Amino acid sequence: MMRRPHGGPDAQGAVQHDFSTCAHPQGPCPGAWQAMQAADARRYPDPHSTALRRRLAAHHGAAPDRLLLAASASEFIQRITAATLALHDGPVVVPGHAYGDYAAAAQAWHRPVVTADAPTGGQPALRWCADPGSPCGQDDPVPQHLHAVPTVLDRAYTPLRLTGRSPWTPEDDDAVFQLWTPNKALGLTGVRGAYAIAPRHAPGPLMSRLHALEPSWPLGAHAVAMLNAWCEPDTAAWLADSQPQLAQAHAGLTAGLVQRGFAPLPGVAPFVCARVPARWREAAPALREHGVSVRDCSSFGLPGHWRLNALAAPSQVALWQALASVG
Fold this sequence. Notes:
The chain has helices at residues 30-38, 50-60, 73-87, 100-108, 170-173, 182-185, 204-213, 221-230, 233-259, 284-289, 313-326; strands at residues 17-18, 67-70, 92-94, 113-115, 126-130, 151-154, 177-180, 194-197, 263-264, 271-275, 292-293, 295-296, 305-309. β3, α4 (100-108) and β4 form a beta-alpha-beta unit. The chain has eleven helices and 13 strands. It is an alpha/beta fold and 327 residues long. It folds into two domains: 17-27 and 236-326, Aspartate Aminotransferase, domain 1, CATH 3.90.1150; 31-234, Aspartate Aminotransferase, domain 2 (3-Layer(aba) Sandwich). The longest helix is centred in the last third of the chain and has 27 residues, at 233-259.
């Protein structure tokens, strides 16, 4: 079985200071949390999510028939990979450092995976981008000829951007599948549910296959409640109000890492990817014994680096104390 590293709780459960996931450090969003508590799990939701689909479409100014609901981002990654590779030959293009499920889905179809800065050796069947990327939270250049290759723009961390503006224009957005995963921004990673906005002129055969591969009832009651809450003005206000605190925590985390010999990479999201000093390269298991969890970045193509979320000051103090204890 292919091992797919991921942050968060493991077989031993959760830790008190979890730097390993990129959930909103101040979450959960109060309005979304209230919606979770009020969700009616006694009944099936509408299998077509008719009202939710219309609301999400209006939220993004898109036509409802462009909305593709997904059980999770990972489910959509598998679905669109299957759909595109069944229709086209060619490699799958991924960012130089990226979420491992992009490549894992392609490899399950025995297709080559190439990075965006390498020759493809043929017309790609699928291309992945992110805004901003992970694990570094960086802005990558927008590819050329977006209409020529089915392209997915992963927007999991767009709502958590701390600085700058997205390099993607509205015209670029209309040419790609935009994959949205609000559970991270809402601090509700235990709730699965996502959606994609198809390109304005998406190929008919690809859309037909994506609909054919959609599971029955992709969204449960809690996912429907979360995605409805995502469209509320209070949710947008909560995200905006949290930005100064996230920026302050990010600055404190970055400064503390530099002070201890780490080499943080530049990024615009509230998590930090940093090269780890040799003395702590193998320290992650020991840190866990001190109630601190970090994300090793080897699966992102960055061995010797950790990704750390910008948790609040008390958790950062725990991190510094744990590093001192194990180092």
